[in-house]
Amino acid sequence: MDALSDWLSAQNLSIAEKDGRGRCLTALKPFRPGQVVLRVSPYVAVLESQATVCDFCSKIQELSLKRCSYCKLARYCSTECQRSAWKGGHAAECGILTALRKQQRVPPPSLQLMLRALLKRARQRSKGEPVEPWDQPELIEGLETHRADLSQERLVQLSQMAALLSSFTPKECFASVEEIVGLLAAMSCNAHTICDPEVRTVGKGIFPVIAMANHSCTPNAVLLFEGTMGVLRCTAEVAPGEELCISYVDLAAPAVVRKRELQAGYYFDCRCPRCEAATAPGGSGEDATLGGFPCSACRDGATVPVEQPATSSMRTCQLCGHQAEYSSQEAAATSAGAMAEEASALRASGDAGEGMRKCQAALGLVERTKCSTAGGAVRMKVNDELMSCCLHAQDWSSARNACRAALPAYLVAYKVHEGPLLGLQYYTLGKIEWYLGNVSAAVGALREACRVLSVTHGEGHRLVCDVRQLLSEAEASLRHDQAAENAESRLDN
Ligand SMILES: [Zn+2]
Ligand SMILES: [Zn+2]
Ligand SMILES: [Zn+2]
Ligand SMILES: [Zn+2]
């Protein structure tokens, strides 16, 4: 591990053990918001079939990628990449995948990822391939498995996957099926979802060094990707000795939901200041806004959400303390969420118009039953889907209204940590306002987009350049309008 420590300290980072938090990725020097902390390629990655990324060089290729003619799974940007990948290990993997494809047994992406990792590890060991400090097979073996926390059900599931995997993986790639169970457990809580700059999922990868960054609900760093390259960037000022944290879950979800997901997927109870304040009496009230129901007794209050499955449908207002039954609101919120998902499926199948109607019905339900506050997560989910449907159907003014209606929840969720999703929401709003000719509203939204995205994506990112370009056009147009207005008022005088 010495090579890793040396490499990390050259990046001004170290691994420290902290009480109750285990291994932590720690800064050795101050980092500024927007600054890159780490840029590393994955140990292995598997991309979704619609992803436009080369399997070898990880470059984004918008135009057609060449598909491997044997396995029909791997895709490359050029013949050179295809050749290099073949020599670099695809030959072995391709033989296995081609045979499985012929038997119509193509494994799911999670098992393809694992197969790739096992083949790579064996290759590194047998050939003594030069191994970079961040790419050592020992790092994969050292990933936290949470073995003791796994339920019996989960263990059975992992054992079945391991047996399947061992049936087509060369025997020299693993010690025992038991070893694969451990590796699968490690991967399920350490693999990262790879996204494109708009934060749409494109695949999954294992980044053992980035996996050392712990979770925080008020993170000071964000993980985004360039192709499959993982880029960890600071989103806040970081002092030397401070731990670098990212968020493992969606921060737009209320604390009760975040805590549940963290417990289920990563086996810990988040007791961070944000989670504590969100649920405590007299706390931030964040959970009441995001996940509660408007209080039936007072004007501004909302109920405090409870752990699920709930033992009772009684809820307490965070402001006036009034207690009442909210089971019908609970059911309505669930239906509204499900309707947004149906709308998303309709949009994907090309029927955005029907999707819009579904979302409008869901919003009607939300209004009638008062099952979400003005900044509530349910309302945000429905409005976001409505916006997507409207954009597909080219109904710009309805798209703008839905985008604006979703914003209050974004502002509550990302009040402390301004994540990429907040910046992207402002960018979408700015583009629609500009398209509708609302120049001053477009300038306002695009300035916010620029401010947030230049931190999360970095100043020179293509997306940030696009935002700046549109912003400068909108600003020029605004100056022009104002000059014309001034000239007019001089004439009037
Ligand atoms: Zn390539
Ligand atoms: Zn192939
Ligand atoms: Zn937390
Ligand atoms: Zn109340």
From TrEMBL:
Residues 11-249 form the SET domain. InterPro entries: H3K4_H4K5_MeTrfase, SET_dom, SET_dom_sf, TPR-like_helical_dom_sf, Znf_MYND. Signal peptide: none annotated. The keyword Methyltransferase does not apply. GO terms for molecular function: zinc ion binding. The keyword Membrane does not apply. One of its GO terms (cellular component) is nucleus. Gene3D superfamilies: 1.10.220.160, 6.10.140.2220, SET domain (2.170.270.10), Tetratricopeptide repeat domain (1.25.40.10). It comes from the Eukaryota. Pfam families: SET, zf-MYND. Residues 54-94 form the MYND-type domain. PROSITE patterns: SET (PS50280), ZF_MYND_1 (PS01360), ZF_MYND_2 (PS50865). Keywords: Metal-binding, Zinc, Zinc-finger. This is Uncharacterized protein. It comes from Cymbomonas tetramitiformis.
